Amino acid sequence: MVKNAIAPYDQQFYLSGIQVSGVTDLNGGYSISENPINIIGKGHKYPVRQGALVGNFEVNKYYIGEEPFLNYTGDNPISGSINYFNDFSSVSNKSFGFNSGYLTEYSVSASIGTIPKSKASIVVYGDIGSGINASGSNPHPDIQIPNQGSIALNTTGYQSNRVVDFSYTMRIDRDPIYQIGSPFPVEVQRKFPMTQQASFSLEVHDFEINQIREYLVKPKQQNITLTFKNPINSSIIETFEIKKARLIEQSMSSSNNNMLNVALSYIGYINKK
What are 70-101's pLDDT values in tens digits? Predict the structure, then answer.
């Protein structure tokens, strides 16, 4: 007898007790690396594991309010799970999740006429698999959907050259610490500096690209602030800031059916305080 597949509306994603809204797709899993051991006189005897037991989760979603992921840019672990059910199944509720993950990358992007989107990448150093359930009753942040009129970008050049799209990324490298007798880390530390990157495109009015040799004399540097506001009452949802961001990439493009466009990319670093 053919069984019914799990439809999208029968799936929910939880993050440390919070049901995450606006998820468009997610991927999670693990792989195990092993090598065979060859013994003289017998050949292959048995395989042994190579490297640590590590899993990964990646979540893509619409940015529709304050992000729960941003509570985990520090050293605290995070749990998560995909919970799914089928009304026609003898077992109505199942889950696939992890119990000790760490945020390694978060990004958000938007362009004119679209809802902003975000992506979170998580490395898992604890157990991962079926039966791990991260659901709970923790309150979800209010749904607040910013639009192009309620997103503010404070950077040089935006006043007289129209910003048409942007992206912001934070990367956090992790260093697991192991001890003999434990398959999982006893501690996971952040590596510093943490990296921030902002990229955006401008339709040119009076913008001029710097000469590359200027980087050798005095690299262009500025603070960049990206603010999301509630379009109804203008209250601030979230602010992303890169202090002393350095301009590392500039390019100009043109075609016979588009405006003259400049793409800029800045990078900044967060040191351990």
Answer: 999 999 999 999 999 866 554 568 999 999 99
**What is d(CA 98, CA 125) in angstroms, rounded to the nearest whole number?**
9
Q: Dihedral, CA atoms, 214, 216, 220, 221, nearest 10 degrees?
A: -170
What does DSSP assign to residue 22?
A: S
pLDDT in tens, 229-255: 999 999 999 999 999 999 899 999 988
**String of b and e for 61-75 (b: at least 16 CB within 10 Å)?**
bebbbbbbbeebeee
**How far apart are alpha carbons 102 and 115 in whole angstroms?**
27
Angstrom distance (rounded) from CA 273 to CA 264: 29
pLDDT digits (tens, 9 = 90+) for 5-64: 777 778 899 999 999 999 999 999 998 888 888 877 777 767 877 778 899 999 999 999
The answer to whether 162 and 128 are in contact (CB under 8 A) is no
Give burial (CB, 10 Å; 0-12/13-18/19+) of 238: middle
The amino acid occupying position 210 is N
Token pair of 120 as six digits? 């979170």
CA distance linking residue 43 with residue 58, whole number of Å: 40
| Residues facing residue 49 across a β-bridge | 34
**Residue partners of 92: CB distance under 8 A and separation at least 6:** 85, 86
Q: Which of 77, 78, 80 is nearest to 28 (CA)?
A: 80
By DSSP bridging, strand 162-171 and strand 258-270 are: unpaired
